Amino acid sequence: MSVDMDYINQFTDMMSEGFIFIDNDGKIQLYNKKAKEVFGVIYNQGKGHESGRILKGDIVIIADNNLGRDDGGLSPQNLSMIGIEDESIDYGDSIIAIGCYKDNKNSSIYKYTKNYKQDSMSLRTNFLDVQIDVSIDFIGRIINITVNNEIFQIEYINAIGHMVVLDGKTGRVKFYQANGYTIRRESIFDLLMGKEYMAKGQNLEVKVIGRDIFEIHGNIPAIKEFYETAKGKNFNFKDKFIEINGRPTLCSLAPVNRKGKRVGALLKVKDISELKKLIEERNEAILKLEEIENKIKKGEKEIDLFPNIIGESDEIKEVKNLLYKASKSNSTILLLGESGTGKGLMAKSIHEKSKNRDNPFIHVNCGSIPEGLIESELFGYEEGSFTGAKAKGKIGFFEMAKGGTIFLDEIAEIPLPMQVKLLQVLQSKTFFRVGGTKEIKVDVRIIAATNRNLEEEVLNGRFREDLFYRINVFPIWIPPLRERKQDIYPIVHYKLPEISRKAGYEEKHISGQALRKLKKYAWPGNIRELENILERAVILCEGNTILSEHLKIETKDGGKKNKGDIKTLKEAVMDAEKKVIIEVLRICDGDKKKAMSMLDIGKTSFYDKLKKYNVNVQ
Known about the structure:
GO terms for molecular function: ATP binding; sequence-specific DNA binding. Keywords: ATP-binding, Coiled coil, DNA-binding, Nucleotide-binding, Transcription, Transcription regulation. This is Transcriptional regulator containing PAS, AAA-type ATPase, and DNA-binding Fis domains. The chain is an alpha+beta fold and 618 residues long. The protein folds into five domains: 105 residues, Beta-Lactamase (2-Layer Sandwich), CATH 3.30.450; 134 residues, no CATH class; 176 residues, P-loop containing nucleotide triphosphate hydrolases (Rossmann fold); 51 residues, Orthogonal Bundle (Helicase, Ruva Protein, domain 3); 42 residues, Arc Repressor Mutant, subunit A. It has 19 helices and 23 strands. A five-stranded antiparallel beta sheet has the order 2-1-14-13-12, with helices on both faces. It has a five-stranded antiparallel beta sheet with strand order 5-4-3-10-11, with no helix packed on it. Strand 10 and strand 11 form a beta hairpin. Helix 7 packs across helix 8 and helix 11 packs across helix 13. It starts with a helix and ends in a 6-residue tail after the last helix. The relative contact order is 0.08.
């Protein structure tokens, strides 16, 4: 059974949704990685801290938007623990308070508002030589506590109590509140009452397997239904909005039976707070694009600002229009299109027209980096991190791009385990070098590109759905050359002098017949193929004019396939494999056992292929 659970854990950890399974005693048996991330069981943000308790003389900073709610039941009277005794403060008030724990030698500083009737409130002060800046944004639902320029931020849905604690002797941060505080039992009330808090840091997590589901997620109605379903009742629901541990989620509940007996229940969780952020980010980008569109229509901007992107077709004009809009936005850009369409050139063009044009542009070909090196290449490594590491360590591509743009070309080639880490970096713009303990923050513009259909990659489990949503904020489709053949003429006239010069020849020209031959061709390799054919023609041509005979391409229809008919090597192998399986099953009259023997294939692999190729056996 343990082997089975290990396999199930590995499988579900690759999922982009959270999965929690409890047995019929209400004990947690499965809690996958995504669920841990959603509820803060794993918390890899911030520099971390050791476990401990609040001690006498420690500086306590509290920002609570609704006193008594989601803070462990903190009462106005409990504030006396940090020297605040004000009878006018009541439950439901919003308060910012700074004081020393169980030490009245220094006066506390605080402010409050009745039932958070303002849009925001803030408090900035120097307390015992520590610069502290606290703000509560009631509209954006964000609380920031800044200590000596170090920011501790928490977002909330309805109510939250945020707290940072500084060592009274050294002034260093010894505790900060973060996502997952409910599971850790680290409410403000608990900690002020002397409860020990847990350590935070890379790869530290709260142990949940084997624990009671109510202990982790409280006694709310949805968790009761989860428990009762595991016990035998037939509750079930799909994509139901539930707030669990302060996180807005879409949950689906299903009973789990084995041999006709109820053995537990499964809860599938989607974190819609992240989806909400992406929607807000996209809406903001759309608003900016509308403003730019209006400026363009009024003649305040010229759209053709990309002299290196050649063409006059409607298709390429639309691409230039989108590139211009993208250059004026900070949103993540996804360039889509076949190989050879010029995605790298367009990424560079976006950067050169952006406000970060004077900062680095780093082009990363994700498909060319070996799987074992991709993390160290992207994020760098510290001295002695692994065998062969440079003595002084190395900075990664993200640090190289600081303040500028990083172009992640062929992003679909990044392996799944690395996609998880990339997603965290795209969300927080922070990361750790391999072997490092210092969190590095970078302000970079992200442009990604792929020639694959990412939606199909997601459906086939080769690309994380949440990463797809993160990079698909502003997609731009680059049409293949065969769909804009009227651009062939201007591309040739623009490229030919440059190609001639690089090849070491005087400038050459091209005949009308040769141009017509170019226009008849399907161009499976797009502009890159056109450049290669022109370079070869320049070398073959002994005079100054390239003729049709110098163009080594096949334009006749005689049996030649169109680009749409050409399959990749992988697709051809899959087609052949499917045909062999179907033929062998026909010969064996549908007897799968005989078919497996003839194909010399194992049972698991055989059935996987039947499902993969949708082969129905009667």
